[in-house]
Structures are given as C-alpha cells and as structure tokens.
Amino acid sequence: MADPSGNPDTPTSAATETSPAKSSTTASTQPQTCAQCAKSPDTLKQCLKCHSVSYCGKDCQKAHFKSHKKVCASLAQEYVKANEPKMASRSSTSARGARDKGLQKWQFDT
Hints:
Radius of gyration: 23 Å
Helix content: 25-40%
Number of strands: 3
Keywords: Metal-binding, Zinc, Zinc-finger
Region (Disordered): 1-32, 84-110
InterPro entries: Znf_MYND
Domain MYND-type: 34-72
Organism: Paraphoma chrysanthemicola
C-alpha cells in the first residue's frame, strides 16, 4: 500500500493483523496464505482497502504492491457494496399502524 504522499514504495498501516482462524470474514474471502510468498503464518496482515489479499509482513506487502494496486480500487468498491449496512424498509404496515394509532391517541388526549 502506498503512503498518502503517493510514494508506492512506502507501505502504510493499510493492513491489519488477522488470525485466519478468528477472522470475521468467510474463508472464501479471507486468503489463508501470504499473497506474495504463499506462506501460511499464524497471523496475516489484510489489505484494509479491498480486504481481498493478506500478507505475512510489511516486506511482502511492499513487494506485492506494484501488482496489487492495479486491482485494489475495484476490489475495494466490490467490498463496500457487499458490506454496506442495509436500511430497514419504511413501508412496514405494522409500524405505520402503530404510529397512526399513537397519533390518534395523542390527538384525542390533547
């Protein structure tokens, strides 16, 4: 990952340590090996932008950045779309009925 100044040779803290066994993502989205060296350490650092690749350390992250940056932005967009919080529907008839009943009671009481 590049630093904010645009230097692609300087990785930032755009990766977090994750434990493959304790990750909140599914096994299909969480790589179990380092994207650069293919080792399988106890903890991997996951790309915070796209969440699709993991690295065993900063050296592997830095070495893999040149090829990863080409797909990272599009993968990040897909990740955001898949993990967006969903809003509840406002057209719930039971909620509307309860609200109307409360309004009628309030109008009667005043």
